[in-house]
Design a protein that fits this description.
mainly alpha; two-stranded antiparallel sheet; 15 helices
């Protein structure tokens, strides 16, 4: 089921994303090429899938969630462009292709990331892209701003950079990843729920529990793959976390315990979906996919 659903959602969001990269001036052509390169270059589109699946779980039409799906993928792509820079993780490979600062240059990559970040908020705010009620659009903007900013993903990256060479306990490691990875996954689910037009407070709370569990599971599985997989499968440099002396779940817990923890988090996420039946099956399938993926 997940393969067909993933293909369907990827096609939907990719069509919507492609329409955003038409340069308004000839002088901006290279910048827009770099932005497009950073987004339309493969990827699992997990965050847009979560947007669509949350919207549909509550009985909404997926077309209402296109802007939110684009926005979370734009933020994700910007974060990867900046993470790969020499001042951050200094990676040359992303999704099996040269990273943006290698394919273009470092200054262009910085500007492309800046452009992708601000374009995400434009897409959510502009009724031409997001024809929902103004109150819903404002709530979406608030949600994405917090998740992507210093209280969320950016703060998590700062903690991550400050933790290189440090020995973190499990609570500290989870705090870092609930910000760096989990905040945007949680926002994806919340934005999808808001897009449905049918989200009440109990539903949002249950979906938050689901998202918190899969957000952490996603990072645990990433850490496992950094140990077990290879560069060709991952599409990025394998073993980079260990080489950079970054704290990870396998290093802290051991590989078998890290795998068990990922499965425990998957089960917590699925349990949080008990208020819904068949409509939430894509969310359940995504929870299983996140801990079973090999890249």
């Amino acid at each position: 089921m997940i393969d067909a659903y993933q293909s369907q959602c990827q096609a939907r969001v990719d069509d919507a994303l492609a329409a955003l990269f038409e340069a308004p001036l000839p002088q901006l052509q290279r910048l827009y090429q770099a932005m497009r390169y950073s987004v339309i270059n493969g990827g699992k589109r997990v965050r847009p899938l979560l947007v669509y699946a949350a919207c549909e779980a509550l009985g909404g039409n997926a077309s209402r969630a296109n802007a939110a799906a684009c926005a979370v993928e734009l933020i994700h792509a910007y974060s990867l462009v900046h993470d790969d820079l020499p001042a951050m993780d200094d990676d040359d490979l992303r999704r099996g292709q040269p990273t943006t600062h290698i394919a273009f240059d470092e200054a262009c990559a910085i500007l492309a990331g800046d452009g992708l970040q601000t374009l995400a908020f434009e897409v959510l705010a502009d009724a031409r892209h997001n024809p929902l009620d103004a109150e819903v659009r404002l709530r979406m903007l608030s949600c994405l701003s917090r998740a992507a900013g210093p209280a969320g993903m950016v703060g998590g990256q700062a903690i991550d950079l400050g933790s290189v060479g440090c020995k973190l306990d499990q609570a500290a490691l989870e705090l870092m990843h609930r910000h760096k990875t989990g905040a945007m996954i949680e926002a994806s689910v919340t934005l999808g729920a808001l897009a449905s037009g049918l989200a009440d407070e109990p539903a949002l709370q249950a979906l938050q529990r689901y998202a918190q569990a899969i957000g952490l599971a996603f990072q645990v599985q990433d850490d496992i793959l950094d140990v077990e997989s290879d560069t060709a499968t991952l599409g990025k440099t394998q073993g980079k976390d260990s080489a950079n002396d970054k704290p990870t779940y396998p290093a802290l817990l051991g590989l078998p315990a890290a795998k068990s923890y990922a499965l425990e988090l998957r089960d917590q996420a699925i349990a949080a979906l008990s208020p819904w039946g068949e409509s939430a099956e894509p969310l359940r399938a995504l929870a299983r996919f996140i801990v079973a993926r090999n890249s």
